[in-house]
Write a structure and sequence with these properties.
alpha/beta; six-stranded mixed β-sheet; five-stranded antiparallel β-sheet; 13 strands
Length: 369
């Protein structure tokens, strides 16, 4: 007698795996149901989960108090969560394998998770504008820090009809993206789309980039639908509109899922020491030959990094941007440390006041002699 193979898990098309099943076992014992966040709105999120008949269904759920004390712990698109289906509330966020995090702004020390449990980070860069290599390096630093594999996608390649010019743009981008793949594509003509579709066929890919980079058009081409609204860029300045206003998780026809995100006006670094080291790997390699182990690569004698910049081995623009991003990362880290110290001090004062109050209650009312 043969037994039929078990039916695939209903959440498999949304990235369910044995690893998440193992991590969910404790929540399952409490009667909770697994789900993946496909969209987040204010105070609630849309979750794909399993109904009593074992089918994948979409449910609007309240985020409850999950992560309320820590913005980075709140449910985010791509998260796997433990759901109370009866109450319609997310009770817990499962540990993230990876997370793309940026600083909310240069004036604050808060971080924001843009996408969670991502295998590949697609950095969309429009060829309709002048190629900004410094911005590519910024995105790459955060992408490497996320734990996902970065892929730089040069969009709107049809607007560069000269093949030689396009090859130079790809070559320039590859020069600032060590370890990352660079693809030039056009959703309008289909150029390069087969290679991109094959790249995202398994796992979870997050699509990020500045406004007007063509992310929504790219998402529609990859999903084979019109799931995302597309507007033209403004004629006045060529900048894009925020056609995508939420971060949406979209299943792909060939397998895998895509997280499309709104266009970003700014991308601040957040705790990106490791990401900077990978984005500027040649600087890290050169630094091993510096005379001083704590060399800042600015004015120190015997600096191998400065020597490489002087002889042209290391482009001066790249070294200057490295310094800029390191300073920014250190500034945000210092603000975070200061905020943490202030929070610890407030907690200590509250506990001290509470202890004093409990001691006074234990002593009882004062007796006047």
């Amino acid at each position: 007698m043969t037994t039929s193979p078990a039916a695939p898990h209903p959440l498999l098309p949304y990235g369910w795996s044995e690893a998440f099943a193992t991590g969910f076992a404790g929540h399952e014992a409490l009667g909770l149901t697994p789900g993946r966040v496909v969209r987040v709105d204010r105070g609630s999120c849309e979750v794909v989960t399993v109904d009593r008949d074992g089918r994948a269904v979409f449910l609007r759920a309240g985020a409850g108090a999950v992560g309320s004390a820590d913005p980075l712990g709140r449910p985010c698109t791509g998260d796997w969560v433990a759901l109370d289906p009866e109450q319609g509330v997310v009770r817990a966020v499962l540990p993230r394998r990876t997370a793309f995090v940026r600083a909310v702004s240069s004036q604050r020390s808060d971080g924001q998770v843009l996408a969670a449990n991502v295998d590949r980070v697609l950095i969309a860069v429009s060829l309709a504008d002048e190629l900004d290599l410094g911005r590519v390096e910024r995105f790459l630093s955060l992408a490497w820090e996320s734990g996902g594999q970065p892929v730089v996608v040069l969009t709107k390649a049809d607007l560069v009809p000269d093949a030689t010019t396009l090859s130079y743009l790809v070559e320039d981008t590859e020069g600032v993206a060590p370890g990352a793949r660079v693809l030039s594509v056009s959703a309008a003509t289909g150029q390069g789309m087969d290679a991109l579709a094959a790249l995202v066929r398994d796992g979870t890919a997050a699509l990020l980039g500045m406004s007007g980079a063509g992310k929504s058009t790219l998402a529609n081409a990859l999903t084979g639908t019109d799931a995302q609204r597309v507007d033209a860029t403004r004629d006045s300045d060529g900048k894009g509109r925020h056609t995508t206003t939420t971060r949406d998780l979209l299943p792909l026809p060939g397998g895998g899922v895509l997280i499309d995100t709104p266009g970003l006006r700014g991308v601040g670094l957040w705790d990106a020491d490791g990401g900077l080291a990978q984005a500027f790997t040649e600087v890290e390699v050169l630094a091993r030959d510096c005379r001083f182990h704590d060399c800042s690569h600015r004015t120190e004698p015997g600096c191998a990094v400065l020597a490489a910049a002087e002889d042209g081995t290391l482009p001066l623009r790249r070294l200057e941007n490295y310094h800029k991003l390191v300073r920014e990362n250190e500034r945000i880290a210092a603000r975070s440390d200061a905020r943490l110290s202030a929070e610890l001090l407030r907690d200590w004062k509250r506990k001290k006041a509470l202890g004093r109050h409990m001691m006074e209650r234990k002593r009882g009312p004062r007796q006047d002699g």
